[in-house]
Amino acid sequence: MPENGLGRREMLGTAGAAACGLALAGCGTRDTKAQESVKGKAITKTADVPVGGGKLIEDLKIVVTQPTHGVYKAYSAICTHMGCALSTPEDNVIKCACHGSEFAADSGKAIKGPATDPLAAFRVRVEGDGVVIA
Questions:
Q1: At the N or C end, where does the chain have fewer CB atoms within 10 A?
Q2: Which of 37, 39, 36, 45 is nearest to 126 (CA)?
Q3: Is the C-alpha dihedral spanning 54, 107, 86, 23 positive or negative?
Q4: Beta-sheet pairing, 110-112 with 102-104
Q5: Is there a contact between 86 and 77 (Cβ–Cβ < 8 Å)?
């Protein structure tokens, strides 16, 4: 074992974790900027968001849901477990294909693990036939 107490495996693991953290931090910043740029603009049409389902807006990493008729919600489309992209909501559930986490379409709350934290929510309003980030 080296003088500093860290072996080769520990050093590689630490370096890998740091690189992953930096990569994820950069992605989060870019996504936030994209989301900020659409504030006040329609991101989808109400007709494209089915009741009990939703629409995934991949380029913004936002998922818009309509849990009940006329009620629209929007959440980050990034799983709170490991940062995987979420799928299009069905049956009022937003799923992560990577590890099987599930989130409630009406609250963003984690309802099946391994994720335990809720999705980040965005305030939305309906203007005409569009869903707008408030």
A1: N
A2: 45
A3: positive
A4: antiparallel
A5: yes
For residue 117, report the phi and psi dihedrals to the nearest 5 degrees: -85, 145
Contacts of residue 46, Cβ cutoff 8 Å, sequence gap at least 6: 66, 72, 126, 129, 130, 131
Amino acid 39: pLDDT? 84
Asked whether the beta carbons of 113 and 104 are under 8 A apart, the reply is no
Per DSSP, the residues of 99-117 read T--EEETTT--EEESS--S
Pick the CATH number of 42-133 from 2.102.10.10, 1.10.10.10, 2.60.40.10, 3.10.129.10: 2.102.10.10
Residue 80 and residue 1: Cα distance in Å, rounded? 36
SS3 27: helix
Please tell me the pTM assigned to this model.
0.72
For the stretch 56-92, pLDDT in tens is 999 999 999 999 999 999 999 999 998 899 999 999 9
Q: Which residues pair with 126 in a beta bridge?
A: 131
